């Protein structure tokens, strides 16, 4: 769907005027919302945008970037949906117009489109300001998503499973870490893009404009810091899980070692008296069986007492 909103020379806002009349407007915004092939072709046939920029629009998913063309700036930004899937939004910004191109509908763009129609002083609106509002709205939509993943991680950290070290814990932790990686792959390139815009003297020629984009950059910095701290927290939970499992394994091995050590002399005695030699004096002793059992019991108790004194059974 192709839709247009424009401000004519009489400062009157027009909805969906004919494309042929757009060049006579003060400014206009064309939004290609899930366009058809015929509508997408207008980027070349009517607007005459650079073929490389149009090619970037047709191929998802390009990295966020800023390209300069003659009297035109071309931006690629990324949006994230609730399933953490990344979608591309393309912006063509010039002094007289802004063209947005996206293959999926976005609530943020829809909100700006509706709010723009109810705005009173249209003379204060410019294509660059509309572009700023689109980018700002997209970046603000990142916060609920990042905070939701952060809440999942905090729930894992505060659960009893952290102390129990269950397999479910590590599975949930790796899922959150995977989600954080997806967010990082979107937010970090967006942060670098906005930094380039802030530092560009060609894109922004007024300090007031620079201040607005610097505010977006601050938001992206905060988002990237949240992601990095949460990724560090997932690493801490993972290390805690590994340490706890290693501690338990060491205790198990220590217990098995103690049991094996106690049974070693007992096995030695059983091996001796299990041999089938005829001339073994002890074999004919009337109470030899009970004596050997008593010796085995005494050896076991003495070894247990010795190990206990050495601290082998301490859990600390």
From TrEMBL:
Membrane topology: Multi-pass membrane protein
Swiss-Prot/TrEMBL keywords: Cell membrane, Ion transport, Magnesium, Membrane, Transmembrane, Transmembrane helix, Transport
GO molecular function list: cobalt ion binding; cobalt ion transmembrane transporter activity; magnesium ion binding; magnesium ion transmembrane transporter activity
Subcellular location: Cell membrane; Membrane
InterPro entries: CorA_cytoplasmic_dom (IPR045861), CorA_TM1_TM2 (IPR045863), Mg/Co-transport_prot_CorA (IPR004488), MgTranspt_CorA/ZnTranspt_ZntB (IPR002523)
Keyword Magnesium: yes
Primary residence: membrane
Superkingdom of this protein's organism: Bacteria
TM ranges: 256-276, 288-307
Any GO CC annotation of this UniProt entry: plasma membrane
Family: Belongs to the CorA metal ion transporter (MIT) (TC 1.A.35) family.
Record's function text: Mediates influx of magnesium ions.
Protein name: Magnesium transport protein CorA
Species this chain originates from: Peribacillus faecalis
């Amino acid at each position: 769907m192709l839709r247009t909103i424009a401000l004519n020379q009489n400062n009157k806002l027009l909805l969906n005027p004919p494309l042929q009349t757009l060049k006579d407007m003060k400014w206009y915004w064309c939004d290609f919302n899930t366009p058809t092939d015929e509508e997408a072709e207008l980027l070349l046939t009517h607007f005459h945008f650079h073929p490389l920029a149009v090619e970037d629009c047709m191929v998802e998913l390009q990295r966020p970037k800023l390209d300069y063309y003659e009297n035109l700036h071309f931006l690629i930004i990324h949006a994230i949906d609730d399933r953490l899937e990344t979608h591309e939004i393309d912006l063509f910004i010039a002094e007289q117009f802004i063209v947005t191109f996206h293959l999926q509908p976005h609530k943020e763009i829809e909100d700006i489109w509706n709010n723009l129609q109810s705005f009173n002083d249209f003379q204060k609106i410019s294509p660059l300001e509309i572009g700023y509002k689109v980018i700002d709205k997209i970046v603000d939509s990142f916060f609920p998503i990042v905070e939701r993943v952060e809440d999942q991680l905090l729930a894992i950290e505060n659960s009893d499973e952290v102390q129990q070290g269950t397999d479910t814990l590590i599975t949930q932790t790796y899922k959150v870490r995977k989600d954080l990686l997806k967010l990082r792959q979107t937010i970090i390139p967006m942060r670098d893009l906005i930094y380039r815009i802030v530092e560009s003297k060609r894109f922004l020629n007024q300090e007031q404009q620079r201040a607005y984009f610097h505010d977006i950059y601050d938001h992206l910095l905060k988002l990237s810091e949240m992601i990095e701290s949460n990724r560090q927290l997932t690493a801490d939970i993972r290390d805690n899980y590994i340490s706890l499992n290693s501690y338990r394994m060491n205790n198990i091995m220590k217990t098995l070692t103690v049991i094996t050590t106690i049974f070693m002399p007992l096995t030695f005695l059983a091996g001796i008296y299990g041999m089938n030699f005829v001339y073994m004096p002890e074999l004919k002793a009337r109470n030899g069986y009970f004596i050997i059992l008593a010796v085995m019991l005494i050896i076991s108790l003495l070894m247990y007492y010795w190990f206990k004194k050495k601290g082998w059974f301490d859990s600390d």
